[in-house]
Design goal:
Blueprint lengths: L1 E3 L9 H10 L6 H12 L6 H8 L8 H14 L3 E4 L6 E4 L6 E5 L5 E5 L1 H14 L12 E4 L6
Helix pairs in contact: 1-2, 2-3, 2-4, 3-4
Length: 152
């Protein structure tokens, strides 16, 4: 079981960003490069607005609409995932596309990554035993809402 504490990631180099976009079948435009870099370096699960605030520091002409379009193309290409926010009002994005779950703290609005192979096994076994008719699960992600307990 692992909880991820999010920190700022070091900036990936341009070659790495270009390669990621190319592998996903996307052209490496200047706008996409800056947006992807911001998404990868911002802590946690940023909103499009947070990515936009970061992006305009480098490219002041990039609009919020462009950020949304780029993030949506990243989701469609498998570069990122869209995550529902705890408050349910804004879309948040997760650059980590590995299998993991999300814990939503209703007090802080924080989204915490949670990995537990034993839980994943239980979920797979549960669905295998249920034999869902005409449906084969390929991946899953739990979204659990709660509150952090204060350390005593």
């Amino acid at each position: 079981m692992a909880l991820s504490t999010d920190h700022f990631s070091p900036s990936p180099d341009a070659a790495h960003l270009r390669a990621r976009l190319s592998q996903a079948g996307l052209r490496a435009t200047r706008q996409r490069l800056v947006i992807l870099e911001s998404l990868l370096t911002l802590p946690g699960h940023p909103t499009a607005e947070q990515v936009h605030r970061q992006v305009v520091r480098q490219e002041p002409s990039i609009s919020l609409g462009t950020v949304y379009k780029a993030l949506d193309s990243f989701v469609a290409a498998g570069l990122t995932r869209r995550v529902a926010a705890a408050e349910g009002t804004s879309r948040r994005y997760d650059a980590d596309c590995t299998e993991h779950h999300h814990l939503f703290c209703t007090d802080t609005q924080e989204i915490i990554d949670y990995c537990d192979p034993q839980l994943d096994t239980l979920i797979r076994e549960f669905f295998a035993a249920k034999g869902l008719q005409n449906f084969q699960p390929h991946s899953f992600s739990l979204h659990i809402t709660g509150s952090k307990l204060a350390n005593k």
